[in-house]
From TrEMBL, chain A:
Biased composition (Polar residues): 811-823
Molecular function in Gene Ontology: protein serine/threonine phosphatase activity
EC number: 3.1.3.16
Protein name stated in the entry: RNA polymerase II subunit A C-terminal domain phosphatase
Coiled-coil features, chain-numbered ranges: none
Name of the gene encoding the protein in the UniProt record: fcp1
Biased composition, class Acidic residues, residue ranges: 680-694
InterPro entries per record: BRCT_dom, BRCT_dom_sf, Fcp1, FCP1_dom, FCP1_euk, HAD-like_sf, HAD_sf
Region entry Disordered, spans: 333-354, 426-468, 673-859
Source superkingdom: Eukaryota
PROSITE patterns documented for this protein: BRCT, FCP1
UniProt feature, compositional bias: Basic and acidic residues: 333-345
Domain FCP1 homology residues, every copy: 155-331
Automatic annotation (TrEMBL), chain B:
UniProt entry tagged with the keyword Transcription: yes
Protein name: DNA-directed RNA polymerase subunit
Matching PANTHER family: DNA-DIRECTED RNA POLYMERASE II SUBUNIT RPB7, DNA-DIRECTED RNA POLYMERASE II, III
Signal peptide extent: none
Keyword Transcription regulation: no
Species of origin: Lithohypha guttulata
Family: Belongs to the eukaryotic RPB7/RPC8 RNA polymerase subunit family.
Domain S1 motif residue range list: 79-160
Family annotation (SMART domains): S1 (SM00316)
Length: 859, 170
């Protein structure tokens, strides 16, 4: 150990006399050498009485901060030292490299005492050395030694390390007492799914509750998964649950303790409540570590992470141990919990609202609001520091523990599952007219049903069957197993390749090095051996990036408003698989991921022949590590068109779009003039509307034929509609114009209406379009528009875009009316007199609605 | 080492407890508070008897009454150099965690009996000796305490098994 001078001395110093010789034993605080330094003193001049500063030489001595025998001096008498440097090599009897709770485990010395020179023995060992305690600290050297041993051990067994998260990754836990009741009741629709749910009791959890039952559902196929994965991986548990909890889970998951043994890290030892850090377990090197977790943000999107989709068995419960974490970004869930989602969205009574507001935020929402501020303003570095000093933010933790307790308590009281099931039952009753059914009958039918096909989707089962809200159809682990095997395989192929190819070269290098430095041959060969270890951080991303490479995605209606699409959870996830995310539908886009039909982006995509798929496609592709065929995931409402597009040669589609660029250019040029020109236009359109009001079936098809358009989509924008374009523009120019137009107008839809207003020679087309939309909106404008008086000029309409109409749109926007309905409504409306300006209002309303929809999509 | 010692404890009672069975309350509170506690120097293992409860003094302004209880308890105070028997609780590459009642003792691999080697492959993980004997979780060992350190209400020790007569108990 080299003894370094502290920074607190009065540099420069000159060493005068060395007191201790080489091989001499030194103790703490023994004088090592004397030195002199120059200080300034104020001195009164004896003649002038003035105070002058004079340099003065002071003698001093330096005491040892180390103990042991002196190996060698690096400085000698007469040397001038200008800055802190190593002066002495001391052979210490104890390096204090492993410390247990402030004691050196070898010599038993107190490591917390602080030296006069500011040296702390504490600093010698600052790496957490064990999974299950934060009291054992080891030094860097010790850690890398342990790491080497570990690695060699793994390589010999051809294994990697796998860090496994518990909650929602391999299990799902809940404390809702309803589960226990359901488990005892064979008649309950959820009985089948709950059969293998395990329970344990933890004492002293939650306020006022001495103990509470935890219900644990293992992810389907977990046992086989662990068994086969344990051959390839050494398994570690890293959970945000408490130590007790983690132990209990381990007991359930791994009763023989053969997979995890003692490699369990819980939040008690983690050192951080809000983040997981791989360096806590692998302080030196993470080249051979794979993580599986359902949350990527807690790992800061570590490249070691293989993210799995969350196991959400107990619907609406979420992760009971995620109270400290920032709120999870909700991804619209996939098919498996479709049913309960439906209950939430379709039920219009206040009941559901209350439930959704409670069930989810209770799980993680309100708590995280407390937790996030504390977390966001700490940098990553601070977090790491905090992790090694676990008691630093004890107060915050204390508070968080309380909020966590509240989460559990509220779940115990609220019984969210019970309520969900009740709603499901209610819905069943409403939907299948079986409200009056006597209880005995459903039970019998349900018995047979649930025995044969419990997890089956309930569409074909009898109407008397009560739908279960819990589904046991998760298959993530099967895919996960495959992906993990792929990573393992790839890793060792790489390793073998490097080893065989590097053997000759490495041998030479080793031989050369051996000649020069004559080191121990063993160490040399072993280090070169470990040099060949490939890096999971490189292997896994390359594997993943291939999967969706070349895919460019636009989200439509998937992400909530005001989310940054590039940093949204799902986006980062998709990007890690090689996909690119865009916010506009342009030429590059290969897939539009849409939550519902009818958004502007979907329309544009359909028109251009871009595949419109549900979020399921992305999720399943990510889950299964391969780009799936889009067909089964095509969005329902536009499926036919989609197929049509698929069948058609895509180039013809492009041609169709390109053949009529002039209209668009005209629109682009005239777009800004529309407000001046539109009045005549609008009225004519309205006249047309009146004419054709009765004819509900008349569509724009004939008009299109009139224009001689080949296979044009009914939803196509007018930009694309005119075939008889006198001017030919190149593709690039066309693209530029379109972009400009889009930028200017903000949306395609806007341009649609604008275009209508401008072009009088295409009245027919626009009129029919208008009619369709008028029908859409007349109902709304009837209620709202009637109240407005006076003549509405077009300019005024423009100016009044933010009028009260906006308030209506929310209520109406969800309604996807059928033409028949609209026709009926519109007839009623026509009975009233002021048709003209009603229709005007309708146009205006429509425009606003679409704007709003567009804004939603963009975000 | 175990001691029998007279100790003193002040207990405050809320006025609502001031009644016929006040002695019961005081006694129960004393047992609850003190048994199994650690003051950083010793553990109170068991309270033997109470031999005096002082007259209560009402704290002015609050109504809370204070009593001083004199009692006798069995203490356990571990000493440096003392030999204790413990149970192995965890086996790590750096050493072995043992527990002697409430005290957790860490024995570094340096201080294990001579020639014990770490076997990460074994289930459960263990240190094995030359004669095939293993130190693994759940085994009883005799440890000499090398150093002690107290936390707020817990003691920690490090120990060694390397000297004669220490190590596995058979």
């Amino acid at each position: 150990m080299l003894l370094r001078l502290p920074a607190t001395l009065h540099y420069p110093i000159i060493i005068r006399k060395v007191e201790k010789q080489v091989d001499e034993e030194i103790k703490h605080r023994d004088v090592l050498f004397t030195y002199t330094y120059i200080g300034k003193v104020t001195h009164q001049d004896k003649y002038t009485d003035e105070e002058v500063e004079v340099d003065k030489v002071f003698p001093a001595h330096f005491q040892s901060t180390l103990e042991g025998t002196i190996q060698s001096w690096l400085v000698w008498e007469g040397d001038e030292i200008r800055e802190p440097r190593d002066i002495l090599d001391v052979n210490e009897p104890c390096k204090h490299s492993v410390q247990f709770n402030g004691m050196c485990v070898e010599c038993g010395r107190d490591m917390t005492e602080v030296d006069f020179a500011g040296d702390e023995y504490n600093d010698r060992a600052n790496i957490q050395g064990a999974h299950d305690t934060d009291k054992l600290l080891i030094s860097q050297d010790e850690a890398s030694e342990a790491d080497q041993l570990d690695k060699r051990h793994l390589l010999n067994n051809r294994k990697l390390s796998l860090v496994v998260d518990l909650d929602q990754t391999i299990i799902h836990a809940a404390v809702d007492p309803t589960i226990g009741e359901w488990q005892k009741d064979p008649d309950n629709p959820n009985y089948e799914a709950l059969k293998d749910v395990r329970a344990f009791q933890l004492v002293d959890e939650g306020p006022g509750v001495r103990s509470c039952w935890y219900y644990i559902k293992l992810r389907p196929g977990l046992e086989q998964f662990l068994e086969s994965i344990a051959e390839k991986y050494q398994l570690h548990i890293y959970t945000m649950g408490t130590r007790q909890y983690a132990r209990e889970i381990a007991k359930i998951v791994d009763p023989d303790r053969k997979y995890f043994e003692d490699r369990i890290l819980s939040r008690d030892e983690s050192g951080s409540m809000v983040a997981k850090n791989l360096t806590r377990l692998f302080p030196v090197d993470t080249r051979m570590v794979v993580i599986i977790d359902d949350r990527a943000d807690v790992w800061k999107w570590s490249p070691n992470l293989l993210r799995v989709s969350a196991f959400d068995f107990f619907v609406g419960i979420g992760d009971i141990n995620a109270g400290f974490l920032p709120k999870k970004q909700e991804i619209p869930s996939t098919k498996k919990i479709e049913a309960p989602k439906e209950t939430k969205t379709t039920d219009t009574n206040g009941h559901t609202g209350a439930l959704t507001a409670e069930a989810e935020p209770v799980a993680n929402g309100e708590v995280s609001e407390d937790a996030t501020p504390a977390q966001t303003d700490t940098t990553a570095l601070q977090q790491v520091v905090a992790m090694t000093r676990p008691d630093a933010d004890a107060a915050i933790q204390e508070q968080q523990v309380h909020t966590q307790d509240e989460v559990i308590a509220s779940q115990l009281e609220d019984k969210p599952l019970l309520r969900l099931q009740q709603q499901m039952d209610e819905k069943d009753g409403l939907g299948s007219d079986s409200t009056a059914n006597p209880p005995p009958e459903p039970i019998t039918t349900q018995h047979t049903d649930s025995d044969s096909s419990d997890s089956e989707t309930s569409s074909n089962s009898g109407k008397a069957k009560r739908h279960s809200i819990l589904r046991d159809d998760d298959e993530e682990l099967i895919h996960l197993k495959r992906s993990l095997r792929a990573v393992h395989e790839r890793f060792f192929i790489e390793y073998d390749r490097k080893r065989t190819s590097g053997a000759g070269k490495g041998g030479r290098v080793a031989a050369l090095a051996g000649k020069q430095k004559a080191p121990i041959p063993d160490a040399q060969s072993s280090s070169s051996d470990l040099h060949n270890v490939p890096d999971v951080k490189k292997i896994m991303p390359t594997l993943k990036e291939r999967i969706l490479a070349g895919v460019v995605i636009v989200f439509s209606g998937v992400l909530p408003l005001n989310t940054d699409i590039q940093t949204a959870d799902i986006s980062i996830w998709a990007k890690s698989f090689g996909a690119r995310i865009s916010d506009k539908v342009n030429k590059e886009i290969t897939h539009v991921i849409a939550a519902r039909v009818g958004t502007a982006k979907v329309k544009t995509a359909v028109k251009r022949g871009i595949k419109v798929v549900g979020l399921d496609w992305l999720m399943h592709s990510i889950q299964q590590w391969r780009k799936l065929n889009e067909r089964p995931f095509m969005l329902k409402g536009i499926g036919q068109k989609e197929l049509l597009n698929d069948l058609k040669d895509p180039s013809s589609e492009v041609e169709a779009a390109e053949s009529d660029p002039v209209d668009a250019s005209m629109v682009a040029v005239m777009g800004d003039a529309d407000s001046k020109l539109s009045s005549e236009e609008d009225t004519s359109a309205l006249n047309d509307t009146e004419e054709s009001e009765d004819d509900g079936q008349r569509k724009k098809r004939p008009k299109l034929d009139l224009h001689d358009m080949p296979a044009l989509d009914p939803n196509a924008d007018p930009e694309f509609v005119s075939p008889n374009s006198p001017v030919e523009l190149s593709k690039a120019e066309w693209q530029d114009m379109e972009d400009e137009l889009n930028d200017f107008l903000g949306s395609d839809i806007d341009s649609e209406s604008d275009a209508e207003s401008v072009r009088s020679d295409r009245n027919l087309t626009t009129r029919t379009k208008k009619r369709g939309r008028d029908d859409d909106t007349d109902g709304e404008s009837g209620t709202d528009g009637e109240g407005r008086n006076g003549d509405m000029g077009n300019k005024r309409q423009k100016g009044g875009r933010t009028s009260a109409l906006r308030a209506v749109k929310n209520a109406e926007s969800s309604g996807g009316n059928t033409p028949q309905d609209q026709a009926g409504v519109s007839k009623l409306e026509r009975a009233q007199t002021q048709e003209e300006y009603e229709a005007e209002l309708a146009i205006e309303l429509e425009r606003q609605m679409e704007e709003a929809a567009e804004g939603e999509d963009n975000s | 080492m175990f001691f029998l010692r007279y100790l003193e404890r002040e207990i405050s009672l809320h006025p609502s407890f001031l009644g016929n069975n006040i002695n019961d309350f005081l006694q129960r509170k004393l047992y609850e508070d003190m048994e199994g506690s650690c003051n950083g120097e010793y553990y109170i293992i068991c309270i033997m008897d109470i031999y005096n409860i002082s007259a209560g003094k009402v704290r002015p302004g609050t109504g809370i009454a204070e009593f001083t209880i004199l009692y006798r308890a069995i203490l356990w105070k571990p000493f440096k150099g003392e030999a204790i028997d413990c149970v192995v609780q965890g086996v790590k590459p750096q050493g072995v965690f043992c527990e002697a009642g409430p005290l957790s003792v860490f024995v570094s691999k340096m201080h294990l009996p001579r020639d014990y080697k770490y076997n990460p492959d074994a289930t459960p993980v263990n240190y094995s000796g030359p004669e095939g004997d293993t130190i693994q979780k759940g085994q009883a060992v005799r440890v000499q305490i090398l150093g002690l350190r107290s936390d707020v209400n817990q003691l920690f020790a490090i120990g060694k098994m390397s000297a004669g007569w220490f190590g596995l108990l058979t």
